[in-house]
Amino acid sequence: MCETPMGREEEPGWNDELDGLVQVLAHPVRRAVLRRFATNPAGVTLEGLARVVAEERAGSVDEAALRELRLTLHHSHLPKLEAAGLLTYDPECGRVDPNADEGSHLWRAVTAMDGVVTLAANDARRTDAAHADGRLSAN
Amino acid sequence: MRSRRSPPTPMPDIHTLVDVDAGTDRIVVTPKRRSGDAWETSLLVVVAVAVVEDTDPERLPPLYDSVDPEALDTLLASAGEEAGLTVRFEYAGYEVRLDSNARVELRRRE
């Protein structure tokens, strides 16, 4: 039998944790929230967080879009991130704080996976651009 | 630092989003527009309860505490309008019935 070094995959509960992380990172709004805390670990209000996410995603802040973003953050994304152990959300006060003490390996995994998602998106854009160039030069 | 959040931007348009038919034992809320592009069906639940309770949907407890809104939307979207799927759960003091035609039925819990 081949012996493989004991990896994280063999640790009890790690695969469940990994599945949870992949699910958490499956939505662009949640990735934007995590990027905000990865670059700035200070707590933030729901309103402030919605503005940061709206600016990152759309480059501008439209009141109606901001309103809907606050609603989806409050009712869906922030409680989900809290359940994954990545932040704490107080829905009464509208206060969001990163849960930095909750095992920093979680944050490293988040950052690494977010990097993979960004790389794949950039690669897809480059491929599209190359195809577009190819069509242009063919004409 | 604020201990309570300041009032959110007023949302006078939530009443324009839905039709409310209030009966004696149940309240039926349906979206006015059928475009469905701006609002996920799960958000319709919080809008429906907010309209009936005359409050702001941000003041209501997170829907996630009852059901994962993302999972709910995925399930309803996968069923399509012909399948006749109805989901029932409890939220914010109401029994909620939600179907894949985006029709919300609310019954106050005793």
Structure description:
The complex is a heterodimer of chains A (139) and B (110). Helices cover 66% and strands 7% of the residues of chain A. Chain A is mostly helical and 139 residues long. In chain A, strands 1-3-2 form a 3-stranded antiparallel β-sheet. The relative contact order of chain A is 0.12. The model of chain A has no long low-confidence stretch (mean pLDDT 82). Chain B is α+β, with helices and mostly antiparallel strands. In chain B, 25% of the residues lie in helices and 25% in strands. Chain B has 3 helices and 5 strands, in the order H-E-E-H-H-E-E-E. Chain B is globular.
Short description:
Chain A is mainly alpha-helical.
Shape designation of chain A: flat
The secondary-structure element order of chain A is HHEHHEEH
Mean pLDDT of chain A: 82
Distance between the termini of chain A: 59 Å
Largest sheet of chain B: 5 strands, antiparallel
Number of strands of chain B: 5
Main sheet attributes: strand count, strand direction, barrel closure of chain A: 3 strands, antiparallel
Give the SSE string of chain B: HEEHHEEE
What is the radius of gyration of chain B computed over CA atoms, rounded to a whole number of angstroms? 14 Å
Q: Which percent band covers the strand fraction of chain B?
A: 15-25%
Helix percentage range of chain B: 25-40%
Please give the share of residues in helix of chain A: 55-70%
Give the secondary structure arrangement, pairings included:
The complex is a heterodimer of chains A (139) and B (110).
Chain A (H helix, E strand, L loop, with lengths): L13 H11 L3 H12 L4 E2 H13 L4 H21 L3 E4 L4 E4 L5 H35 L1
Antiparallel strand pairs in A: 1-3, 2-3
Helix pairs in contact in A: 2-3, 2-5, 3-4
Chain B lengths: L13 H4 E5 L4 E5 L9 H13 L15 H11 L6 E6 L2 E6 L4 E5 L2
Antiparallel strand pairs in B: 1-2, 2-5, 3-4, 4-5
